[in-house]
Amino acid sequence: MSTAHPTIHTAQVTPVNSSPRCTVVLTRPAADMTPWLQALQAADFDVLTLPLIAIESRADSPAVWAEWSGLQRNSAVMFVSANAVRHWFAGSSAYSQTWLDAMQQPVYQGPRCWVPGPGTASALLQLGVPLHLIDQPRADAAQFDSEALWQVVRPQLALLQQRDVQTPASSRVLVVRGQTHGAVDNANKPNEAGQGRNWLAYQCRTMGMTVAHIAVYERVVPAYDGAVQRVLNQAAAAPHTIWLASSAQGWRNLEQLIALWGGDDVLHQQRVLATHPTIADSVRALGWNQVVACRPALQDVLRALVSMRG
């Protein structure tokens, strides 16, 4: 029997001057830091920034250009993260502008955009993608992930199947993602009982869709340098520290950095707020015991942190 772990949903996001000072270690990729940093500081948290995944672009590659040139063969393009959005659209300014212009027309017949949550949707909106062309989990979904997205897009694919009976239509989904440096690529590995984008891809295939994947960036371990050492020292010395975990891969990278730093026993006793139960499980497996989970939306994270601060 699995053990239930706590998920925090309550508390108001208002600075409380009588609360003890609390330090949050923000571990998101550098490109995503600014709005989170500003929101945490506005909520009266001390903030340390330690991006746990370094991003290297792979957008200017023949494979990416080939997908851009054949974009219209897709019925949907799924972006797995805000970084996927940024690096995909950076791959070809000409193609991307043509696609964005087409989306503004009264009649649009190109692929829709699928995203697992509001952060990725926001990245598309900032580029000019209309909201009505973005499919994402419902705002009241228990989590923002591929499973919640599937509940939204499955009826869309069912309608596509019905249309294909009368008129052949595109039956291809392109998944735009990153890849981990040196890791075995399992993007096309069947996953009927698992979780995440591979599970969603399997579900699409069961409905007759072809699923293709394209990596537009690579995730690498950040270099261990003086800046990293200072953040780890400050996190260890702060009286009340909460780590914000938004990636299981990032936490594996953190363990490598901590090993070089040499103070794992201190940090492993600190609290962690994970933005998905699966991430929370990965963090616990690496030896962190005080871990709770919440939804990944910024306001949900803020409410959870305020509750943890007390």
Describe, in plain words, how this protein is organized in 3D.
The protein has 310 residues and is α/β, with parallel strands linked by helices. It has 2 domains: 23-53 and 223-309, Rossmann fold (3-Layer(aba) Sandwich); 56-220, Rossmann fold. 42% of the residues lie in helices and 17% in strands. The protein is built from 12 helices and 11 strands. It has helices at residues 33-42, 62-69, 82-90, 93-103, 118-127, 146-166, 196-206, 226-237, 248-261, 264-267, 277-285, 298-309; strands spanning 23-26, 46-49, 54-57, 76-79, 112-114, 134-135, 172-180, 210-220, 241-245, 271-274, 291-293. The strands form 2 sheets. A 6-stranded mixed sheet has the order 3-8-7-4-5-6. A 5-stranded parallel sheet has the order 2-1-9-10-11, sandwiched between helices. Helix 5 (118-127) links the parallel strand 5 (112-114) and strand 6 (134-135). Helix 3 runs parallel beside helix 5 and helix 6 (146-166) runs parallel beside helix 7 (196-206). The longest helix is centred in the middle third of the chain and has 21 residues, at 146-166. The chain is elongated, with a radius of gyration of 21 Å. The chain starts with 22 loop residues before the first strand and ends with a helix. Mean pLDDT is 88; it is low at 1-16 and 190-194.
